Amino acid sequence: MEAGYPKLKPALARSWRDLKTVQFGVTPAHAVVFGPLDVASGSFLGLVDGTRGMPRLREEARAMGLPEGQADRLVGRLAGAGLIEDGTAGGPAAQELRQRGALLERLEPELGSLSLLRGEPGAALRGLAARRAVRVRVRGGGRVGAVIAAVLSGAGVGQVEVMEGGLVEPQDVAPGGLPARSVGRRRGPALREAVSAAAPGPPPRAAEREGAGPPGGEPPLALVVVAPRDGLAGYAPDPSLAEEWITTGTPHLYAGVLEATGFVGPLVLPGGTACAGCMERDRVDRDRAWPRMLTQWRSARRRAAPSCDLGLAMAVAGLAAAQALAFLDGELPGCAGARWQTSLPGLEWRREAVTARPDCPCGAALGGEGVGASGPPGAQDTMTR
User: Fold this and answer.
1) DSSP code of residue 278
2) What secondary structure letter does DSSP report for 241?
3) Class assignment of domain 1-87?
4) Residue 245 half-sphere exposure toward CB, CA atoms < 13 A
5) What top-level class would CATH report for the domain 133-367?
6) Cα dist. 250→128, 224, 325, 354 in Å?
7) Structural domain spans, the chain
8) What is the pTM of this model?
9) CA 351 – CA 28 distance, rounded (Å)
10) Of 82, 238, 287, 379, whose CA is between 20 and 30 Å from 111?
């Protein structure tokens, strides 16, 4: 399909490796080496900036002395390498979003990132529109949960709900989460305000949510993020609390901080990856005293504030939000079938596989073979294309 107004993806910095070869991008994960190019073809690249349609580009290519058809060949090669964006592509959802100028300005960094992950012209904007149509729930509104919710909202997720009761306490305050002025208020309204303040614009209109749920209703839950203020409830989750999600097939992700140790995962895909019940059974097999100790920990009355250092809380919230966004964007993130864990002071992330158990009623051991993760962000090098 011919691009309407092709332009080189602005998210990739451009530099010449030599007189005939140009490199788009700096980092190995997304850099592309393109060539060989003669002088005229190299000059033609500067015209592919989104201000000219293909008829105009063909005219200017002829004026530069390029052979007939060279403009189409060059744009086709660039598109094949995932280097072309198009301000007219992406379908109705993308077009609807293009009409929201102020919203797109706020989401321009997200759009740039998505353009690196999706090669097809218009796919990045279509992906951003898809984020606007989904609903996510965050259970937990402390230092970790509130920041996760705010990041998801700020990254363009259309509906972000936060479930947490009680009153905001001083230790709940965190940059990007609950502000100091919310201390003493009811958590529910305070969290809704924080999520709304982080949003890049008003909630999505009905046209943007078309196809995401019943007509006139809200879309189904795409993901539940479990980030309780009590880190124990996320580190060793009670399987009974996840029964509804397993039954309804609702994906859910655990994250939090416990005793200066941060964790993200697992992402549970019901029937596909290990669940809280699998984790509990596995831990009991490895430590027969675990159920006895867990009962004591859960029943103990906690008076001290959680050991949730701000830097660690931000690291956990950031990684959890990034993994959640990858999942919402249609990728299988690094925490599917695994838990990432780090502790102060070293903050070295390490991966622990979470195995689906055949004796767990979730059924993941039968349906989830081969579902797994490759690693956290930056864990492995990617060859330059």
Assistant:
1) H
2) G
3) alpha beta
4) 27
5) alpha beta
6) 22, 7, 16, 18
7) 1-87, 89-128, 133-367
8) 0.88
9) 23
10) 379
